[in-house]
Amino acid sequence: MRFSIIIPTLGRSEELILMLDSLLNQSFKDFEAIVVDQNEKDILTSIINSYKNSLVLKHIRIPARGASHARNEGMKIAEGSILTFPDDDCEYPNDFLMRVNTCFEENPEDGIVANTMDKTDGKAIANLSSNEIKIRRSNILKTVIEAGIFIKSNIADGIWFDEDLGVGSPSGYCSDEGPDFVLQLLAKGAEMKFYPDFRMFHPNPVRVYNEQTAIRAYKYGKGRGYFLRKNKFGLKGILYFLLLYILGMLKSIVFFNKQMFMYFVKGFKGRYEGYFKSK
User: Fold this and answer.
1) Count of domains forming the chain
2) Fewer Cβ atoms within 10 A, N terminus or C terminus of the chain?
3) 130 Cβ partners below 8 Å, 6+ apart?
4) How many CB atoms lie within 10 A of CB 273?
5) CA-CA distance, 11 to 15, in Å (whole number)?
6) Nearest-CA neighbor of 219 among 277, 171, 172?
7) Distance (Å, rounded) from C-alpha 19 to C-alpha 24?
8) Within a 13 Å sphere around the CA of 268, how many CA atoms are in the beta-carbon half?
9) Which residues of 241-257 are buried (b: 16+ CB within 10 A; e: fewer)?
10) Domain Glycosyltransferase 2-like, which positions (predicted)?
């Protein structure tokens, strides 16, 4: 088995169908999909069963919440030589796995990270590098998003996602589990590269500024602050991100945009608390 595609899912069915449909349409077929189901009620079995004659598909149900916990559980049963961790609302272009596989065959890297873009407008959903670049500690937050990680399973052996980080974590630190995971891989000696032109689809979570996206900015901000403190990026690291959100507040004042202002206030607060008030 070449790829193990580990998909944490909670509270979504239509989005998961789109992801599984995109797997059906892949020109490269040597993969298994592992759906790690965290729903309290069984809402997916009938959907999963409808794909079992067309995909190599494993469906495991776990009671504990958290995307990082789900990925770790998926890794325990993965059989592929390359692991990847898309969200349940991702989709792959038809030639995506073929291009990734060719990249591994032609290059020496132990892992790569692909870019993510919104399918409706074609824009990247995260402010990552526009250059093809070797991933290092110094550029980790400009090159890594968890849904785009592809890593050889032998290199990832013994490396786990920090379950205090990521959506659904009981800690409330709802981001940066991907960069944290990759830092562990780099410390083990993994060679990894970011390919901005390898693009998969993921809806942009902040198309507009409103109360919901402000709450998200706070939770994800806490994750960023905690990540920076945990990995000892120092005051320089956190002050840089706090400054970005101060600039965002100033921009929102110029445009008289209250919702935008609250987004950056909440994001600032989350980053501050995640760094200075985390255990």
Assistant:
1) 2
2) C
3) 196
4) 17
5) 10
6) 172
7) 9
8) 16
9) bbeebeebbeebeeeee
10) 4-132
Which amino acid, one-letter code, is at 57? L
Q: Which of 161, 179, 201 is at the close of a domain?
A: 201
Residue 206: inside a domain:
no
pLDDT digits (tens, 9 = 90+) for 131-178: 999 999 999 999 999 999 999 999 999 999 999 999 999 999 999 999
State the DSSP string of 96-115. HHHHHHHHHHHS--SEEEEE
How far, CA to CA in Å, does 108 sit from each of 13, 112, 137, 195, 198? 37, 10, 19, 14, 17
For residue 218, what are the domain limits?
211-276
Identify the DSSP state of 243: H
Q: How far is CA 169 from CA 33, 93, 97, 250, in A?
A: 23, 30, 29, 32
